[in-house]
Amino acid sequence: MEIMYFLVAIILLDLAALRWGIDSRDKIDSIEWTRRNPNCY
């Protein structure tokens, strides 16, 4: 049963990272980087 809780927690963390994380594949001049850090330019 503990393994199920652990797997659910890992899946939820993964979904949160996909939703709110920064995609490192974006180029440095990407709109996403500018939106997250408006002072970068």
The averaged pLDDT comes out at: 77
**Number of structurally distinct domains:** 1
Count all strands and give the number: 0
Strand fraction equals under 5%
The H/E string reads HH
**Distance between termini?**
50 Å
Q: What's the overall geometry?
A: rod-shaped
Uncertain spans, ≥5 residues at pLDDT below 50?
Answer: none
Please describe the biggest sheet, giving its number of strands, its sense, and whether it closes into a barrel: none
CA-atom Rg in angstroms: 15 Å
Number of DSSP helical runs: 2
Class based on secondary structure composition and strand pairing:
mainly alpha
Q: What's the helical proportion of residues?
A: 55-70%
Model description:
- The protein has 41 residues and is mainly alpha-helical.
- It has one domain (2-40).
- The chain has helices at residues 2-20, 31-36.
- The termini are far apart.
- The mean pLDDT is 77.
